[in-house]
Amino acid sequence: MKIAIGADHGGYELKGALLTALAGKAELIDKGTTSRESCDYPDYAQAVALAVAKGEVDFGILVCTSGIGVSMTANRFQNVRAALCRTVDEAVVSRQHNGANVLCLGAKAVSAAYAAEIAAAFIATPEDASERHARRRAKLERAGRLSDVSGLAQDDPEVFAAIVAQTEQEDTEINLIASENTSSRACREAAGSVLMNKYAEGYPGKRWYSGCVPVDAAEELARTRACALFGAEHANVQPHCGSAANMAVYFATLQPGDTILSMSLDQGGHLSHGSPVNFSGKIYNIVPYTVNRETERLDYDAIERLALEVKPKILLTGASAYPRAIDFRRVREICDKVGCIMMVDMAHIAGLVAGGAHESPVPYADFVTTTTHKTLGGPRGGMVLCKAKWAKALDSAVFPGMQGGPLENIIAAKAVVFKEWMSEAKKGYAQQVVRNCQVLCKTVQDRGYRIVSGGTDNHLFLVDVKSTKGITGKEAAAALDAAGIVVNKNTIPYDTESPFKTSGIRVGTASVTTRGMKEPEMIKIGTWIADVLDNIADTAVQARVKRAAKELVAGFPVP
Ligand SMILES: *Cc1c(COP(=O)(O)O)cnc(C)c1O
């Protein structure tokens, strides 16, 4: 057992007594102070609290004259639970019930001999494993979701209110938006960090500003982790979003007017793949491909014929609303026949690729673009992976080609998430996302709803509510929203409704899986979706589902 121990001048002598009393019982790391000379208690409390927060030690012990100042300081740190104890009983209860990991003592409040007894009891007592105490300890930690931003309560109450509202929404609604996920606390901490203060035009080691050593470290971590996670030769982690990542590839490889062959938006493609209202459609000659009318799947032979005919510079695959696996080997074959660049936009499936639940496009494609906030579950942002031969062209296209200073705080958050993906805790997550999606999809399908392409291989599926119930996607999404289930209206292939109304809804399982839901929850949610859609105008059904949904999500807290 390792214990970090610290004190200010008021607690210096008691600290000395405790070091002697505990010698042999644990490995003691003395964080100071080293004399009776006047000093500031927060300095020593911080040193001990950080050792506990980092997991370097099992426990911390802090002493000042009253014990109050050190306990207040220590409790400002994540994962630190500091207890100011005056009796052996309090020490025991603080361990059993509250899982205290830092013991605070007042030199004026307890004798040296009794302090040693309190400390011995503290380190010898295990946490009470019963459900109610475990639940309360978890709640205690989760109070941090608001404490992280509680400074805003005074500084900017209006913005604070918006954050509280989002927190409450996440705590009470079932989020099935296929392009969203739930970020980790570590990711949010990096994203909100002081790294946002730095200008860093250029790349690590080659910046246009001084003082970039800290952000260079963060960006280098993001780049090397991205390459390791995806097996890529080169990564550019600077694009501010997925659309910017796509723009970077176009700028690196094309001249205005060049031809891109890509999936059309109304069939599942993305705005930045050549929609006429987007820069991509305005600058380049876009030839859209479609899915097969019967199977509603990509028809690789048809794409090959079209590619041989129009000779694109880039063949772009990847989509925002395509529920089936993409055959990247087959796409590579087409690109080789045509002699064009293979570009894959894996924005939606990047997490499935990272977790091994979808074949990786990285070995095949010249360029792979992605967002970092969808199934990948990181901060809102973009990234491009490419073969080494394209590295220089890509980096110049991003900076100075289209962006100035990168968002180093967001880049650090990307690094955090790439590391999470390589951890033990993330094993099996991507597979669970897909299993959940298939169970949810089948539950809705078994209630008679037509599913586009008949099912799903990934994290999303599309329900054709128009042909099943004669309602629009817009009406369906609004009814589900009123019932606490959040999805989005979506066009389906060959849709006869306008993009504002649509015939379908898109349903995804990344966020609910992050919160720990599994197949039994998917069956419940699928049943509720069908209940609401079966009774589209019935507000009583919506109210019943909303109550049940709220109860369900309460058991799956946001990290
Ligand atoms: C979401 C998405 C993007 C764009 O992401 P933004 O960060 O919103 O710009 C690009 N491509 C595809 C396929 C997407 O689904």
List keywords for this structure.
single chain, 559 residues, alpha/beta, Ribose 5-phosphate Isomerase B, Chain: A, Aspartate Aminotransferase, domain 2, 3 domains, seven-stranded mixed sheet, five-stranded parallel sheet, 20 strands, 45% helix, 14% strand, binds pyridoxal-5'-phosphate
What features would you describe in this structure?
- With 559 residues, the chain is an alpha/beta fold.
- The chain folds into 3 domains: 2-140, Ribose 5-phosphate Isomerase B, Chain: A; 190-420, 3-Layer(aba) Sandwich (Aspartate Aminotransferase, domain 2), CATH 3.40.640; 425-553, Aspartate Aminotransferase, domain 1 (Alpha-Beta Complex).
- 45% of the residues lie in helices and 14% in strands.
- It is built from 24 helices and 20 strands.
- The chain has a 7-stranded mixed β-sheet, sandwiched between helices. A 5-stranded parallel β-sheet has the order 2-1-3-5-4, with helices on both faces.
- Strand 4, helix 4 (88-96) and strand 5 (102-106) form a beta-alpha-beta unit.
- Helix 4 (88-96) packs parallel to helix 5.
- The structure holds pyridoxal-5'-phosphate.
- Pyridoxal-5'-phosphate binds at residues 179, 241-243, 270, 272, 318-320, 345, 347-348, 371, 382.
